[in-house]
Amino acid sequence: MDNKKYKRACVMVRNIKISVVKVRRILDHVRKYSLRNALMLLEFLPYKGSLVIYKAIKSSYFNYKNFWDFNVTLDNLYITKAKADSGPMLKRSCPHSRGKAFPIRKRTCHITSMI
């Protein structure tokens, strides 16, 4: 018995040099759409992270296609899970007034998409 409810494909993109807050803002637009609508939306969003998320979702589509069903189309699949978690932080310092060092935290994130 073949149950399509449990067939999923997942992709994790790690250590992206974009802040988690910026990526979550884009993922909030994309969740619960069909893949065709989500990819179309990501093409026209003017944010830096939309290209990375576009590639991650497209990769999860091809993983699903290769592993489960070769004849599946973009309209039949939906994004079930899309999240961004914080990654390791690169810590730098910048000289500040009166001989102090001012910390600079370059944030990274991990993106997980599941269809």
Can you summarize this structure?
It is found in: Plastid. The chain is an alpha+beta fold and 115 residues long.
Please tell me about this protein's structure.
The protein has a single domain, classed as Ribosomal protein L22/L17 (Ribosomal Protein L22, Chain A, Alpha-Beta Complex), CATH 3.90.470.10. The longest helix has 19 residues. The protein contains 3 helices and 5 strands; from the N terminus they run βαααββββ. The mean pLDDT is 89. The chain is an alpha+beta fold and 115 residues long. A 3-stranded antiparallel sheet has the order 1-5-2, with helices on one face. A two-stranded antiparallel sheet has the order 3-4.
Provide keyphrases for this structure.
115 residues; alpha+beta; Ribosomal Protein L22, Chain A; two-stranded antiparallel ribbon; 3 helices; 27% strand
**Distance from first to last alpha carbon:** 21 Å
The coarse silhouette is elongated
Total E-strand runs: 5
Summing up helix and strand content along with how strands pair, one would put the structural category as alpha+beta
Q: Into which percent range does the helicity of residues fall?
A: 25-40%
Radius of gyration: 18 Å
Total helix count? 3
Runs in which pLDDT lies below 50 for 5 or more consecutive residues are none
**CATH structural fold name:** Ribosomal Protein L22, Chain A
Please state the second-level CATH architecture: Alpha-Beta Complex
Quick one: CATH superfamily?
A: Ribosomal protein L22/L17
| CATH class descriptor | Alpha Beta
Q: Output the helix-strand order.
A: EHHHEEEE
Integer tally of domains: 1
The average pLDDT is 89
Quote the beta fraction. Answer: 25-35%
| Main sheet record | 3 strands, antiparallel
Strand order of the largest sheet: 1-5-2
